[in-house]
Write a structure and sequence with these properties.
Layout: H1 4-33, H2 36-40, E1 44-54, E2 60-71, E3 78-81, E4 84-87, E5 95-98, E6 101-104, E7 111-121, E8 130-140, E9 145-148, E10 152-155, E11 159-163, E12 165-169, E13 174-178, E14 182-185
Antiparallel strand pairs: 1-2, 2-3, 2-4, 3-6, 4-5, 5-7, 6-7, 7-8, 8-9, 8-10, 9-12, 10-11, 11-14, 12-13
């Protein structure tokens, strides 16, 4: 014969499980919406970060590395300290960019380099190495596009250029300069080796 006391035990266990489920659901919802701590404290930190992206054929497309990576789950942003971005293209040549810091969008389709940004294009037959300096650079890796919204300085063996802003299409190897553009051509220099 079942007594009334034995009926209460399963009911008490069910109520305890329901309360525990409610508490877990509320904890997860608070983490997703973000508390003050989740907005200011990184969810994860990596030292000496290095990521390589390949094209559909498995060949290296670009590499992104940094001294330190911090990921924030609340805002889904990622911050990089001393980042280095390298476009790896055997046909167009290697293009690298370094800066003091960077942020990466949640989808990884936009990287913003900040502070003493320097871009270097490797020398190629018939073309000298080129260096570009600016304070802020937007990198769109999937589109092979670099954009500097502020002042830029471009240097190579035969020309020095200063401009108010710049856009570089790495796939087509086209640089668009805007704002006040000043160029100094050095006559008689050899164009590449």
């Amino acid at each position: 014969m079942i007594t009334r006391g034995s009926l209460w035990l399963p009911l008490a266990i069910l109520l305890l499980l329901a309360a525990l489920s409610f508490w877990i659901e509320r904890s997860v919802q608070l983490t997703e919406t973000g508390s003050e701590a989740s907005q200011t404290d990184p969810e994860g930190i990596m030292e000496n970060f290095d990521a390589l992206r390949t094209n559909p054929e498995g060949k290296p497309h670009y590499r992104l590395s940094a001294k330190r990576l911090k990921h924030y789950s609340g805002s889904r942003r990622t911050e990089l300290e001393s980042p280095r971005f390298v476009q790896l293209d055997p046909e167009a040549g290697e293009v690298s960019a370094v800066a003091k810091q960077a942020t990466v969008s949640s989808g990884g389709d936009e990287v913003v380099l900040l502070g003493d940004v320097a871009i270097e294009r490797a020398a190629r037959p018939g073309q000298s190495a080129m260096t570009l300096r600016t304070e802020q650079l937007l990198v769109f890796p999937e589109r092979d596009l670099l954009r500097a919204p502020g002042a830029v300085e471009i240097l190579d063996d035969i020309v020095t250029v200063r401009a108010g802003a710049m856009e570089y299409d790495a796939g087509q190897r086209i640089i668009k300069l805007t704002g006040r553009v000043r160029a100094r051509y050095i006559a008689g220099q050899n164009q590449g080796s």
